[in-house]
Amino acid sequence: TTRRSTTSRAKKADSAKAVEDIEVKPMALITNKHHTFSDMEQRLVAIRDEMGSKLPLKVVVDISNRIQGTDYAEDEETQRELIKVADRMFRSHKMASHESAGVMAAHSIGEPGTQMNMRTFHNAGVANVLTTQGLPRLIEIVDARRVPSTPSMVIPLRGLAAEDEEVAKLVSYEIETTILKNVADITVNATNMTVVITPDARTMDRLKITMDDIVERLNKVKMFRGLVQKGDFEIVINSDVPSYKKLQTLYENAKVTRIKGIDGIKRAVLSKQRMKILKAEGSDGVEGGTRVDGEGWVIITEGSNLKEVLKVEGVDVEYAQTNSVLEIADVLGIEAARNSIIKEALATMKGAGMDVDIRHIMLVADLMTNDGSVKAIGRHGISGKKASVLARAAFEITAPHLLHAAMNGEVDHLEGVAENIIVGQPVTLGTGAVKLIYTPKNQGNEE
Q1: Cα separation of 374 and 381, whole Å?
Q2: Confidence (pLDDT) at 427
Q3: CATH number, position 187
Q4: Residue whose C-alpha is closest to residue 169's, from 32, 67, 271
Q5: 285 domain residue, yes or no
Q6: Of 260, 275, 292, which residue is a domain's last?
Q7: Which among 322, 339, 363 is the end of a domain?
Q8: What is the DSSP code string of 56-97?
Q9: Is it the case that residue 113 has pLDDT exceeding 60?
Q10: pLDDT single digits (tens) 270-315
């Protein structure tokens, strides 16, 4: 017991030391590496702050981009007027106090959703790579599904890989899963109780796979460990048990053993698209590390594994995308997941021809991610965890919620919308959010 407690204290001390070694930078020193503010933008921000405006920084940057290169770029009086007008418009677009923002968002997304197609697939930039669209995709997003029905990634390449097709192909070979039966002929020798693997030299050369790579991958599989023998032109797996059933099991598992690529990526297809290419060091006429507009190679995949894809040499890690929201949350964090929910939902609605204000979708995304994790909208997520007993009971499952609340002695304070409607009281929205008391004066005879 003493030895265990000593070891435990030592581990805690090491952990504390590791925490102390972490360098924490003040927020003021953390800069946005994707955007450097120009002189014009800094001037407009200063005008905004001087006026005491709450105008978002994004709007100020957009104004700067619009007036760049025009006569307004040097006219400070006009710039002040632009900021003033933009601030007035921004304030006028704010929602009124006690407005029912949630109901409006639900209506604005739900009503167009009833008109969306039930079975819709979309070519993800290239032929034969289909992604789910329409209502099923919208349901996937708000239900926070761990794995989408058609997981897919869009992976822009950088440097030489973005410009040279042969280099781009080599990167795609590192990403696409290659199993043994794709690169070799596999047979069973029942007489010798062995599985014989004869690699295809041409395919192996194209995919840059060697015999040693195959042997190494097979030896990493517990079932084959110690049973693999490498010959000059073939690889033999010996059965350690003289059983035809075991031999067949070895054969079936050998066929699907992953030799190269990333787990979960079934296919990787190259497509040339217009994008901002991250140039490599030594590029002609361009400093390395800068981005230029042009056509570059992009890999579009069936399947998703963002964490491993970001480790592949030649991938533009700043622009790699996946349609799996929860995967983004795991790898890049909750803010990235929120942005992904907005982007995916908006793209799905627009793809179906529905024009929805982005602020409604932003409200849903904020609600799904406000506690640091991605939660579903339904009864297994937000709707099933409301503080109000009546609100929980009103959504899909009634009796279990009421029974559980009665057993635990829960009290409903009727502070929300649904519970007040259930009991027939005015809801706490709009005029119902304000309580007015009128005390009439005594109008009796003064005599």
Answers
A1: 9
A2: 87
A3: 3.30.1360
A4: 271
A5: yes
A6: 260
A7: 322
A8: -HHHHHHHHHHHTTSGGGG-HHHHHHHHHHHHHHHHHTSPPT
A9: yes
A10: 988 888 888 766 555 455 567 788 889 999 999 999 999 999 999 9
Residue 420 sits in a domain of what CATH number?
A: 1.10.150.390
**% of the chain at pLDDT higher than 90:** 36
Nearest to 102 by CA among 345, 366, 338: 366
Q: What mean pLDDT, rounded, does the chain reach? A: 83
Q: 44 and 60 in contact (C-beta within 8 Å)? A: yes
Q: 205 near 331, Cβ under 8 Å?
A: no
Do 283 and 211 lie in one domain? The reply is no
Contacts of 239 (CB under 8 A, 6+ apart): 193, 194, 195, 227, 246, 247, 250
Degrees to nearest 5, angle at CA 45 with 39 and 47:
105
- 165 near 297, Cβ under 8 Å? yes
Q: Are 82 and 67 in a shared domain? A: yes
pLDDT greater than 90 at residue 339: yes
DSSP assigned state of 190: T
Q: Is 30 inside any structural domain?
A: no
Q: Which residues contact 46 (CB under 8 A, 6 or more apart)?
A: none
Report how far residue 409's alpha carbon sits from residue 268's, in angstroms, rounded to the nearest whole number: 56
Range of 410's domain?
383-433
**Cβ pair 133, 141 in contact under 8 A:** no
Determine the Cα–Cα distance for residues 178 and 180; give it in Å rounded to an integer. 7
| Full-model pTM | 0.76
- Out of 20-34, 197-211, 310-324, 425-439, which region has the weakest mean confidence (pLDDT)? 20-34
Of 161-165, 282-286, 328-332, 385-389, which has the strongest mean pLDDT? 328-332
